[in-house]
Write a structure and sequence with these properties.
Length: about 260
């Protein structure tokens, strides 16, 4: 597959603190990549640099072979890299329909005159997003009154309104009940696959990561310590020790894993 996004020697320091250290990664088009690591490992810093919310201290970010390092978030979004947030960024006093209408309207203003939708096509796009993200029964409800899982769905739907080629999700199941999380991810992943969106998502739930990703990048102290297929990464000794948190024997060696 073709590479759609690449980080080359990406680093970010805040004074004496290094939040990202020489990150190198190539993301293939149409892939689903999980970013795992403990809090402070560098995952969100990486997302913030890719989406323009932070300027790297060193290194480069390439999108479709174009250097986008240091571009403003709005420009990066217009190019096709969008994101959702750990805490949904919604207009709480507007309804679900109105929130998505705002997202569709912003995307329309960013396009060329020939790309701008008519009122009829904009309405059709809003209705498609409401259906794809399971928001039909909530369309008239205020965003501030929605259950957390529905707020997450709405936040992602608004990001998808920008017609991204790459979508970065920061903890999409955070705050979502155990009963809801798989239903939410099934729906989101199906909608994104239908649009052929390349997905990177930060997640602490290893069941979610192993079920929905093609590949995992494991972060520790600002570095990528493992990169590969989910089973290989989740079985990696450093990932088991520093990310999953398996206990060690008194000898300093890892405890034997339970048989599966």
């Amino acid at each position: 597959m073709a590479t759609i996004l690449e980080a080359k020697g990406l680093s970010k320091s805040f004074g004496a603190v290094t939040a990202a250290n020489d990150i190198n990664a190539r993301i293939e088009q149409d892939s689903v990549v999980g970013l795992i690591g403990s809090n402070g490992a560098g995952k969100t810093t990486f997302i913030n640099m890719v989406t323009g919310y932070l300027k790297p201290s060193a290194g480069h970010i390439l999108y479709q072979d174009r250097d986008i390092t240091g571009m403003l978030p709005r420009k990066i979004a217009q190019l096709g890299i969008c994101r959702s947030f750990q805490i949904p960024q919604l207009f709480n006093t507007l309804s679900v329909y109105e929130n998505i209408r705002v997202g569709v309207g912003i995307a329309a203003r960013a396009g060329t005159p020939s790309q701008k939708p008519t009122d009829q096509s904009a309405h059709a796009e809003i209705e498609r997003l409401i259906e794809d993200f399971g928001l039909g029964s909530y369309r008239s409800q205020l965003a501030g009154l929605l259950p957390e899982g529905v707020r997450k769905s709405l936040d992602i739907a608004m990001a998808v309104a920008g017609k991204p080629r790459v979508l970065l999700l920061d903890e999409p199941t955070s705050g979502v009940s155990a009963e809801e999380k798989f239903r939410l991810m099934d729906m989101v992943m199906a909608a994104l696959a239908a649009q052929r969106v390349t997905v990177l998502f930060v997640e602490h739930d290893m069941d979610i990561v192993s079920r929905y990703t093609h590949r995992i990048l494991a972060f520790y102290e600002g570095r990528i310590i493992a990169d590969g297929e989910p089973k290989l990464v989740l079985d990696h000794a450093d990932v088991r020790r520093y990310v999953i948190g398996e206990p060690l024997h008194p000898t300093g060696k890892e405890a034997p894993r339970a048989a599966h």
